[in-house]
Amino acid sequence: MVLEGVVATRRAGGAAFTLTIEALRLEAGSLVAVTGASGTGKSTLLDIAALARRPDNATVMAICGTDAAALWARGAKDALATLRARHFGYVLQTGGLVPFLSVGANAALAQDLAGRRDAAHLVALAGTLGIDDLLARMPASLSVGQRQRAAILRALAHRPALVLADEPTASVHPDMAATILALLADQARQAGAAVLLATHDAPAARAAGFHEVPLQPGPASSRLPALLPA
Ligand SMILES: Nc1ncnc2c1ncn2[C@@H]1O[C@H](COP(=O)(O)OP(=O)(O)OP(=O)(O)O)[C@@H](O)[C@H]1O
């Protein structure tokens, strides 16, 4: 993924907040943690990276060789949805699993949407995450830590190029947070996926091997400084 000169504005009432991404290039195996206090724009940045929010401006917005800026410009919503399903995996704060599907069915759905069904890969990945005995369970019957492992399974099951993780450890105990972040980092690296993590917990992210990029807050705005590949 390459983002350059991307600007996004959020407006509420008379107030506006502007995020500027100078340059962000994520390659296979990149582990990048965007950090900042509450309200500095971490979620806005992930929304932009996830193609869930239309930018005001984008010099470059390339996802696995596709010009996403051009797709936004011509309102190609189906093509944007296809890009998302094929190339992105998501880990949200509380899992974001479909509540009426089992853990295994959640992961299989991600594979189906991406057009990459691979039951053997799903089971093997569940084994490395330590949840192969939970595949038939419903998300509501899991502990928070188990749910986040299931979310990592769902995020990686379809072999995405990029995993977006928004505060994936905010609701787990600090010891479990370290384990979850390490699992996410290890599994993504092994799969050759890049991870873009948003977190307020910079030390935990660094400990798991993430390269930290702090958002630079300004008046009613934030800036992500240029990050070139490590
Ligand atoms: N729905 C919204 N409409 C308008 N402005 C919003 C909206 N949500 C957030 N904002 C503003 O955008 C800015 C960035 O918010 P964002 O949620 O991206 O920050 P964050 O760093 O993810 O915060 P947190 O860590 O609390 O989740 C904030 O200053 C906020 O006031």
Report on this model:
One of its GO terms (biological process) is protein localization to outer membrane. One of its GO terms (molecular function) is transmembrane transporter activity. InterPro entries: AAA+_ATPase (IPR003593), ABC_transporter-like_ATP-bd (IPR003439), ABC_transporter-like_CS (IPR017871), ABC_transpr_LolD-like (IPR015854), P-loop_NTPase (IPR027417). It holds the Pfam family ABC_tran. The protein has 230 residues and is an alpha/beta fold. It has a single domain, classed as Rossmann fold (3-Layer(aba) Sandwich), CATH 3.40.50. The protein has 8 helices and 11 strands. It has helices at 42-49, 68-73, 77-87, 103-114, 119-128, 144-156, 174-191, 202-207, and strands spanning 2-12, 15-25, 31-35, 57-63, 66-67, 88-91, 162-166, 194-199, 211-214, 216-218, 221-224. The strands form 2 sheets. The chain has a 6-stranded mixed beta sheet. Strands 6-7-8-3-9 form a 5-stranded parallel beta sheet, with helices on both faces. The radius of gyration is 17 Å and the shape is globular. The structure holds adenosine-5'-triphosphate (ATP). The site of adenosine-5'-triphosphate (ATP) has 13 residues, from strand 1 and helix 1. Residues 10-12, 17, 36, 38-44, 200 line the site of adenosine-5'-triphosphate.
Question: Could you list some keywords that capture this structure?
Answer:
globular; transmembrane transporter activity; nucleotide-binding; alpha/beta; 8 helices; P-loop_NTPase; Rossmann fold; 5-stranded parallel sheet; 6-stranded mixed sheet; binds adenosine-5'-triphosphate; ATP binding; ATP-binding; 230 residues
